[in-house]
Amino acid sequence: MASLKSKYQRKESELIDSLIGKGKRTFITQIQLIETSKVKDHLIYDCTYVDNGTKKQINIIAVDISDAISKVEQIVDTNIPEITANVMLGSEIYNKV
Prior knowledge:
Layout: H1 12-21, E1 27-36, E2 43-51, E3 54-62, H2 65-75, H3 82-90
């Protein structure tokens, strides 16, 4: 895997501040697959994103990465608190097939 030049490597907080300073208020900074789910054919992703200028971190149960991003898109700019979003998207109860 190619590495970035050092001038392009900065801490997450610096990156977030820079993007907010440029007018970006909502964006995903990281999505990582962390485990398989009890829900058939689903995976658990850890997602860090900025929603209207506020950093949030949630777990998402989804079929694949596209499904995970789709679920995040549904909750951004709705003023849903991080804890509530985590229950909604990271709970097997709400993700039964």
